[in-house]
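User: Please fill in residues for this 495-position structure.
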């Protein structure tokens, strides 16, 4: 896979540009210190690298909030998830990303740089997409009014989804046409190095992801998703990924490895993930496989024989009551110095295809059996995941617990593999909500009992959205209060 890594110069530039468009607490405010460049002096390429960096850091910020919810990890000592405002994501989107994208897009239109304009639209769609999936209604149409309107109203999630599809369709049209300008992002493109064919496939892949969110709502059909996904990613070379290096280290490595070495361990790997991978929920049948070969790339287990994940709220114990032992791997796929952050991958696209085909064939949360399209996409998704993680998946994929055959395929097989593959990806929180946290779909999934969670405001209930950040409540109180709901209330597409 071709890796586009963060340049130290780009990171330095990011630090400067934050002062240009991100210092004020007001939307899209510009506050330029005397030693920084003006907006007019900056090129589209100068602004794009910081936007891409903040986009990926925003994804990680969301996962820091929701990784507990989906039981990828637990707090030190087995602490359970609490309510969240996801304030880090809000800051990235509204202070660092959308303001810069507004400037980039204006410059692209002025210079006839249609492909850079298209990439801007894709990035806007991705960022307002994760924002609306996090908070439901969000500021957008009035968010760029600046000093003329410091109290923007919120657009509904339905309106935001309409805008997401409009942006992606516009980007697709522009990328499928020639760009006659002389502008190219080149190395300023931290995702694809200026390869617009990959951006085109990314636009289709993201569109399919957001279409899938609306299938259970009845707004989009599974066949619509399948039509879109056919134009999406074709290999792991297309993964929407940003790689770090030894001068700009991966933030998961910084937090989960370096912090551990200073005695500040903050997270452990949860039992839901481990039990989905060690044969507990899906016992292996062939006698050859003992664990999913990807598990040792995520977690380490103190050199013990078994991987035993932490129960949320369980005080450091595994599901069987013995001591849990799974921490983030020191040099894991996501916890090495140069590890990537990934927004959407080829394997996820294949699991989207598998789910859509399963549903299009009349499948339900408990039905058994599907068609060749669903089963092939399911198996191809596993193969793509193994390739991405660098794991030898031959024995795993041959085991009868995995290679169930077209006639025995269930939605739980597809969603289990997607859950494992999307480790540390906030999209999993969307999947959980789409299927109402069903243990028919996510085998073994349990919420803490009302007695165990009696110290929370909503005992025995799943969280389905974030609270708006306090900073937004302080500066835009009336509009925040008009849109704020309890964190257990479903977002629009989940109603």
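Assistant: Residues filled in for all 495 positions:
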């Amino acid at each position: 896979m071709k890796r586009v890594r963060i340049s130290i110069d780009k990171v330095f530039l990011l630090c400067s540009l934050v002062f240009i468009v991100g210092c004020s607490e007001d939307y899209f405010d510009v506050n330029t210190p005397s030693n920084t460049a003006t907006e007019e002096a900056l090129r589209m390429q100068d602004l794009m690298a910081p936007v891409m960096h903040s986009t990926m850091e925003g994804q990680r910020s969301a996962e820091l909030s929701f990784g507990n919810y989906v039981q990828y990890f637990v707090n030190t000592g087995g602490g359970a998830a609490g309510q969240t405002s996801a304030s880090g994501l809000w800051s990235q989107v509204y202070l660092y990303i959308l303001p810069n994208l507004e400037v980039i897009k204006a410059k692209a239109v002025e210079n006839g740089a249609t492909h850079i304009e298209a990439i801007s639209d894709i990035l806007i769609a991705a960022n307002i997409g994760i924002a609306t999936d996090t908070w439901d209604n969000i500021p957008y149409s009035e968010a760029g009014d600046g000093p003329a309107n410091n109290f923007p109203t919120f657009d509904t999630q339905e309106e935001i989804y309409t805008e997401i599809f409009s942006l992606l369709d516009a980007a697709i049209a522009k990328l499928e046409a020639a760009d006659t300008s002389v502008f190219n992002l080149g190395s300023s493109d931290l995702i694809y190095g200026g390869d617009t064919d990959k951006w085109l496939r990314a636009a289709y892949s993201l569109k399919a992801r957001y279409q899938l969110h609306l299938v259970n709502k009845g707004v989009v059909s599974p066949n619509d998703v399948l039509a879109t996904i056919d134009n999406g990613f074709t290999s792991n070379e297309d993964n929407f990924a940003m790689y770090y290096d030894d001068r700009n280290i991966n933030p998961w490595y910084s937090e989960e490895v370096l912090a551990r070495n200073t005695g500040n361990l903050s997270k452990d790997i949860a039992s839901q993930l481990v039990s989905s991978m060690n044969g507990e929920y899906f016992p292996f049948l062939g006698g050859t496989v003992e664990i999913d070969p990807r598990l040792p790339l995520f977690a380490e287990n103190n050199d013990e024989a078994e991987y035993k994940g932490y129960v949320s709220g369980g005080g450091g114990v595994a599901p069987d009551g013995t001591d849990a032992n799974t921490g983030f791997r020191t040099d894991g796929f996501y916890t090495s110095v140069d590890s990537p952050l990934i927004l959407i991958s080829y394997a996820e696209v294949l699991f989207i295809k598998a789910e859509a085909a399963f549903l299009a064939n009349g499948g339900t949360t408990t039905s058994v059996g599907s068609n060749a399209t669903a089963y092939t996409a399911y198996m191809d998704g596993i193969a793509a995941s193994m390739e991405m993680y660098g794991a030898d998946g031959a024995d795993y994929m041959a085991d009868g617990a995995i290679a169930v055959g077209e006639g025995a395929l269930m939605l739980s097989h597809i969603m289990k593999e997607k859950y494992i593959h999307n480790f540390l990806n906030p999209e999993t929180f969307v999947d959980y909500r789409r299927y109402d946290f069903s243990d028919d779909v996510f085998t073994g999934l349990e919420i803490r009992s009302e007695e165990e969670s009696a110290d929370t405001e909503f005992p025995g209930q799943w969280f389905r959205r974030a609270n708006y950040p306090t900073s937004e409540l302080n500066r835009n109180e009336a509009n925040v209060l008009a849109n704020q709901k309890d964190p257990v209330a479903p977002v629009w597409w989940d109603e």
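For context: The first helix runs from residue 8 to 21.
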